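Intended use. Records like the one below are meant for learning the mapping from a protein sequence to its folded structure. Do not use them to infer anything beyond what is encoded.
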Amino acid sequence: MSARPAPAAPGTPGLLHSAFYEFVPLASPRAVLDALRVLTRELEGSIIVAAEGISGAVAGAPEAVETFEAALIGDPAFGGAFARIVFKRSACTTRPYAQMALRLKPEIVAFGVDGASGPEPQREDAGRLGPQAWRELLMQDDVVVIDNRNSFEYRLGRFRGAIDPGVGSFREFADYARAHAPAWKAAGQRVAMYCTGGIRCEKTAGWMRQELGLEVLQLDGGILNYCQTLPDADRDWLGECFVFDNRIALDARLRETPTTAAEVYDPARPDEAWRLERALRLDAGAAGGDGSAR
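Structure written out for the chain above:
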Protein backbone atom coordinates (compact mmCIF):
# COMPACT_ATOMS: atom_id res chain seq x y z
CA MET A 1 0.00 0.00 0.00
CA SER A 2 1.28 3.48 -0.83
CA ALA A 3 1.66 6.19 1.76
CA ARG A 4 -0.79 9.05 1.60
CA PRO A 5 0.47 12.51 0.58
CA ALA A 6 1.19 14.88 3.43
CA PRO A 7 -1.85 16.44 5.11
CA ALA A 8 -2.21 20.15 5.62
CA ALA A 9 0.10 21.45 8.31
CA PRO A 10 -1.37 21.26 11.85
CA GLY A 11 -2.62 24.56 13.16
CA THR A 12 -3.30 26.06 9.72
CA PRO A 13 -6.84 26.74 8.46
CA GLY A 14 -8.48 23.84 6.67
CA LEU A 15 -8.18 23.75 2.90
CA LEU A 16 -11.21 24.05 0.64
CA HIS A 17 -11.43 22.28 -2.72
CA SER A 18 -13.58 23.68 -5.52
CA ALA A 19 -14.25 21.88 -8.82
CA PHE A 20 -15.90 23.55 -11.82
CA TYR A 21 -16.38 23.58 -15.58
CA GLU A 22 -18.28 25.53 -18.20
CA PHE A 23 -18.78 24.84 -21.88
CA VAL A 24 -18.77 28.29 -23.47
CA PRO A 25 -17.11 29.52 -26.70
CA LEU A 26 -13.99 31.52 -25.87
CA ALA A 27 -12.66 33.89 -28.51
CA SER A 28 -9.25 34.07 -26.85
CA PRO A 29 -8.41 31.09 -24.62
CA ARG A 30 -4.90 32.48 -24.21
CA ALA A 31 -6.23 35.72 -22.72
CA VAL A 32 -8.35 33.71 -20.29
CA LEU A 33 -5.31 31.71 -19.26
CA ASP A 34 -3.29 34.88 -18.72
CA ALA A 35 -6.01 36.30 -16.46
CA LEU A 36 -6.11 33.05 -14.49
CA ARG A 37 -2.39 33.28 -13.78
CA VAL A 38 -3.09 36.39 -11.73
CA LEU A 39 -6.24 35.12 -10.02
CA THR A 40 -4.72 31.81 -8.88
CA ARG A 41 -1.54 33.10 -7.26
CA GLU A 42 -2.70 32.05 -3.79
CA LEU A 43 -4.12 28.69 -4.91
CA GLU A 44 -3.02 25.25 -6.03
CA GLY A 45 -4.83 23.09 -8.54
CA SER A 46 -5.24 22.24 -12.20
CA ILE A 47 -7.16 24.25 -14.81
CA ILE A 48 -7.62 23.53 -18.52
CA VAL A 49 -8.74 26.21 -20.97
CA ALA A 50 -9.81 25.54 -24.57
CA ALA A 51 -11.87 27.25 -27.23
CA GLU A 52 -14.86 25.26 -25.95
CA GLY A 53 -14.60 26.46 -22.33
CA ILE A 54 -12.91 25.86 -19.00
CA SER A 55 -12.50 22.93 -16.60
CA GLY A 56 -10.58 22.78 -13.37
CA ALA A 57 -10.23 22.45 -9.66
CA VAL A 58 -8.50 24.66 -7.13
CA ALA A 59 -7.66 24.32 -3.46
CA GLY A 60 -6.50 26.72 -0.80
CA ALA A 61 -7.61 28.72 2.19
CA PRO A 62 -11.41 29.13 2.09
CA GLU A 63 -11.25 32.90 1.68
CA ALA A 64 -8.80 32.56 -1.24
CA VAL A 65 -11.05 30.01 -2.94
CA GLU A 66 -14.11 32.21 -2.45
CA THR A 67 -12.28 35.21 -3.89
CA PHE A 68 -11.28 33.18 -6.94
CA GLU A 69 -14.83 31.89 -7.49
CA ALA A 70 -16.23 35.43 -7.33
CA ALA A 71 -13.60 36.65 -9.81
CA LEU A 72 -14.27 33.82 -12.26
CA ILE A 73 -17.94 34.77 -12.29
CA GLY A 74 -17.61 38.54 -12.28
CA ASP A 75 -14.16 39.72 -13.36
CA PRO A 76 -14.45 41.98 -16.45
CA ALA A 77 -11.49 40.10 -17.97
CA PHE A 78 -13.86 37.21 -18.75
CA GLY A 79 -16.69 39.31 -20.15
CA GLY A 80 -19.35 37.33 -18.31
CA ALA A 81 -18.36 34.06 -20.00
CA PHE A 82 -18.43 32.18 -16.70
CA ALA A 83 -21.35 33.98 -15.05
CA ARG A 84 -23.36 30.75 -14.69
CA ILE A 85 -20.56 28.47 -13.58
CA VAL A 86 -21.34 26.12 -10.66
CA PHE A 87 -18.76 25.18 -8.05
CA LYS A 88 -18.69 21.81 -6.27
CA ARG A 89 -16.93 22.22 -2.94
CA SER A 90 -15.40 19.71 -0.53
CA ALA A 91 -13.10 19.92 2.47
CA CYS A 92 -9.55 18.60 2.55
CA THR A 93 -7.48 16.70 5.06
CA THR A 94 -4.77 15.85 2.56
CA ARG A 95 -3.28 18.67 0.48
CA PRO A 96 -4.89 17.99 -2.93
CA TYR A 97 -2.23 19.62 -5.11
CA ALA A 98 1.36 20.75 -4.79
CA GLN A 99 1.20 23.59 -7.31
CA MET A 100 -1.02 25.38 -9.80
CA ALA A 101 -1.04 23.92 -13.31
CA LEU A 102 -2.65 26.04 -16.06
CA ARG A 103 -2.91 24.52 -19.55
CA LEU A 104 -4.24 25.33 -23.01
CA LYS A 105 -5.65 22.26 -24.76
CA PRO A 106 -7.85 21.44 -27.78
CA GLU A 107 -10.64 20.15 -25.48
CA ILE A 108 -11.40 20.71 -21.81
CA VAL A 109 -12.12 16.99 -21.58
CA ALA A 110 -10.64 14.74 -24.25
CA PHE A 111 -13.45 12.83 -25.97
CA GLY A 112 -11.76 12.73 -29.37
CA VAL A 113 -14.95 12.84 -31.49
CA ASP A 114 -15.19 15.61 -34.08
CA GLY A 115 -18.11 17.94 -33.54
CA ALA A 116 -18.84 16.85 -29.95
CA SER A 117 -18.43 19.92 -27.81
CA GLY A 118 -20.77 20.25 -24.89
CA PRO A 119 -24.50 21.00 -24.72
CA GLU A 120 -26.59 21.69 -27.79
CA PRO A 121 -27.30 25.46 -27.88
CA GLN A 122 -30.96 24.97 -28.77
CA ARG A 123 -31.65 22.59 -25.88
CA GLU A 124 -29.04 23.42 -23.30
CA ASP A 125 -31.02 22.19 -20.28
CA ALA A 126 -32.72 19.24 -21.95
CA GLY A 127 -32.13 15.98 -20.18
CA ARG A 128 -30.43 17.47 -17.12
CA LEU A 129 -31.81 16.08 -13.89
CA GLY A 130 -31.26 17.44 -10.41
CA PRO A 131 -30.39 15.07 -7.56
CA GLN A 132 -33.97 14.36 -6.42
CA ALA A 133 -35.21 13.74 -9.99
CA TRP A 134 -32.20 11.47 -10.55
CA ARG A 135 -33.09 9.46 -7.44
CA GLU A 136 -36.59 8.93 -8.79
CA LEU A 137 -35.23 7.97 -12.20
CA LEU A 138 -33.15 5.18 -10.69
CA MET A 139 -36.38 3.41 -9.72
CA GLN A 140 -37.78 3.33 -13.26
CA ASP A 141 -37.64 0.21 -15.43
CA ASP A 142 -37.19 1.73 -18.89
CA VAL A 143 -33.83 3.29 -18.11
CA VAL A 144 -30.30 1.95 -18.55
CA VAL A 145 -27.99 3.75 -16.12
CA ILE A 146 -24.46 4.21 -17.48
CA ASP A 147 -21.42 5.13 -15.42
CA ASN A 148 -19.58 7.50 -17.74
CA ARG A 149 -16.23 7.11 -15.97
CA ASN A 150 -13.29 4.72 -16.05
CA SER A 151 -13.63 1.17 -14.73
CA PHE A 152 -11.41 1.76 -11.72
CA GLU A 153 -13.73 4.57 -10.64
CA TYR A 154 -16.79 2.35 -11.03
CA ARG A 155 -15.23 -0.40 -8.93
CA LEU A 156 -14.62 2.04 -6.10
CA GLY A 157 -18.19 3.37 -6.05
CA ARG A 158 -21.32 3.59 -8.19
CA PHE A 159 -25.03 4.32 -8.23
CA ARG A 160 -27.16 1.28 -7.60
CA GLY A 161 -28.10 -0.48 -10.82
CA ALA A 162 -25.43 1.30 -12.89
CA ILE A 163 -23.54 -0.42 -15.70
CA ASP A 164 -19.77 -0.25 -16.14
CA PRO A 165 -18.91 0.40 -19.81
CA GLY A 166 -15.51 -1.18 -19.16
CA VAL A 167 -13.48 1.71 -20.58
CA GLY A 168 -9.96 2.61 -19.55
CA SER A 169 -10.22 6.20 -20.80
CA PHE A 170 -12.91 8.63 -21.90
CA ARG A 171 -11.82 8.30 -25.53
CA GLU A 172 -13.12 4.71 -25.52
CA PHE A 173 -16.65 5.67 -24.54
CA ALA A 174 -17.81 6.60 -28.05
CA ASP A 175 -17.13 3.07 -29.34
CA TYR A 176 -19.00 1.60 -26.38
CA ALA A 177 -22.03 3.84 -27.03
CA ARG A 178 -22.04 3.07 -30.77
CA ALA A 179 -21.93 -0.68 -30.10
CA HIS A 180 -24.82 -0.67 -27.62
CA ALA A 181 -27.10 2.03 -29.03
CA PRO A 182 -29.07 -0.37 -31.33
CA ALA A 183 -29.94 -2.68 -28.43
CA TRP A 184 -30.97 0.21 -26.18
CA LYS A 185 -33.24 1.62 -28.87
CA ALA A 186 -34.72 -1.79 -29.69
CA ALA A 187 -35.57 -2.29 -26.02
CA GLY A 188 -37.13 1.18 -25.79
CA GLN A 189 -34.65 2.20 -23.12
CA ARG A 190 -33.69 5.72 -22.22
CA VAL A 191 -30.03 6.26 -21.37
CA ALA A 192 -29.22 7.90 -18.04
CA MET A 193 -25.58 8.89 -17.49
CA TYR A 194 -23.55 10.23 -14.63
CA CYS A 195 -19.91 11.10 -13.99
CA THR A 196 -17.90 12.77 -11.23
CA GLY A 197 -18.76 16.43 -11.81
CA GLY A 198 -20.93 16.34 -14.93
CA ILE A 199 -18.42 17.29 -17.62
CA ARG A 200 -18.18 13.93 -19.40
CA CYS A 201 -21.95 13.64 -19.64
CA GLU A 202 -22.18 17.23 -20.84
CA LYS A 203 -19.67 16.43 -23.57
CA THR A 204 -21.38 13.25 -24.79
CA ALA A 205 -25.12 13.75 -24.30
CA GLY A 206 -25.73 15.96 -27.35
CA TRP A 207 -23.58 13.72 -29.55
CA MET A 208 -25.51 10.62 -28.42
CA ARG A 209 -28.82 12.30 -29.21
CA GLN A 210 -27.81 13.64 -32.60
CA GLU A 211 -25.55 10.87 -33.90
CA LEU A 212 -27.01 7.79 -32.22
CA GLY A 213 -30.67 8.79 -31.94
CA LEU A 214 -30.90 8.05 -28.22
CA GLU A 215 -32.99 9.67 -25.52
CA VAL A 216 -30.34 10.76 -23.03
CA LEU A 217 -30.69 11.99 -19.47
CA GLN A 218 -27.83 13.15 -17.28
CA LEU A 219 -27.20 13.86 -13.60
CA ASP A 220 -26.66 17.61 -13.44
CA GLY A 221 -23.44 18.36 -11.60
CA GLY A 222 -22.54 14.68 -11.34
CA ILE A 223 -21.79 12.65 -8.24
CA LEU A 224 -20.29 15.64 -6.44
CA ASN A 225 -23.47 17.69 -6.78
CA TYR A 226 -25.60 14.70 -5.75
CA CYS A 227 -23.61 14.15 -2.56
CA GLN A 228 -23.39 17.88 -1.86
CA THR A 229 -27.18 18.28 -2.19
CA LEU A 230 -28.65 15.19 -0.54
CA PRO A 231 -27.72 14.43 3.09
CA ASP A 232 -28.80 10.81 2.57
CA ALA A 233 -26.94 10.32 -0.72
CA ASP A 234 -25.70 6.93 0.50
CA ARG A 235 -29.22 5.58 -0.08
CA ASP A 236 -28.34 5.42 -3.78
CA TRP A 237 -24.59 5.96 -3.93
CA LEU A 238 -22.68 2.80 -3.04
CA GLY A 239 -19.02 3.05 -2.04
CA GLU A 240 -16.62 5.94 -2.59
CA CYS A 241 -16.13 8.56 -5.27
CA PHE A 242 -12.68 8.70 -6.85
CA VAL A 243 -11.29 12.21 -7.27
CA PHE A 244 -8.37 13.19 -9.50
CA ASP A 245 -6.23 14.72 -6.79
CA ASN A 246 -4.12 13.53 -3.87
CA ARG A 247 -7.11 12.86 -1.63
CA ILE A 248 -7.91 9.82 -3.83
CA ALA A 249 -11.50 9.22 -2.68
CA LEU A 250 -14.49 10.83 -0.91
CA ASP A 251 -17.45 9.23 0.83
CA ALA A 252 -21.12 10.06 0.21
CA ARG A 253 -20.79 13.14 2.44
CA LEU A 254 -17.75 14.35 0.47
CA ARG A 255 -15.38 13.50 3.29
CA GLU A 256 -11.92 12.20 2.48
CA THR A 257 -11.45 8.47 3.07
CA PRO A 258 -8.28 6.48 3.92
CA THR A 259 -8.28 4.76 0.51
CA THR A 260 -4.90 4.75 -1.26
CA ALA A 261 -3.97 4.60 -4.93
CA ALA A 262 -2.79 1.02 -4.46
CA GLU A 263 -6.34 0.10 -3.44
CA VAL A 264 -7.85 1.81 -6.49
CA TYR A 265 -5.77 0.68 -9.46
CA ASP A 266 -5.30 -2.90 -10.67
CA PRO A 267 -1.64 -3.33 -11.72
CA ALA A 268 -2.64 -6.29 -13.90
CA ARG A 269 -4.52 -3.92 -16.23
CA PRO A 270 -2.21 -1.96 -18.54
CA ASP A 271 -4.49 1.09 -18.58
CA GLU A 272 -4.31 1.21 -14.77
CA ALA A 273 -0.72 0.09 -14.17
CA TRP A 274 0.71 3.37 -15.47
CA ARG A 275 -1.68 5.33 -13.26
CA LEU A 276 -0.55 3.38 -10.21
CA GLU A 277 3.11 3.87 -11.08
CA ARG A 278 2.53 7.59 -11.49
CA ALA A 279 0.64 7.80 -8.19
CA LEU A 280 3.45 6.01 -6.38
CA ARG A 281 6.00 8.41 -7.84
CA LEU A 282 3.93 11.35 -6.67
CA ASP A 283 3.57 9.81 -3.23
CA ALA A 284 7.36 9.52 -3.05
CA GLY A 285 7.54 13.30 -3.36
CA ALA A 286 6.76 15.31 -0.27
CA ALA A 287 3.22 16.22 -1.24
CA GLY A 288 2.67 14.63 -4.64
CA GLY A 289 2.21 16.41 -7.96
CA ASP A 290 -0.96 17.91 -9.37
CA GLY A 291 -2.79 14.61 -9.10
CA SER A 292 -4.42 14.99 -12.51
CA ALA A 293 -4.02 11.44 -13.84
CA ARG A 294 -7.03 11.73 -16.11
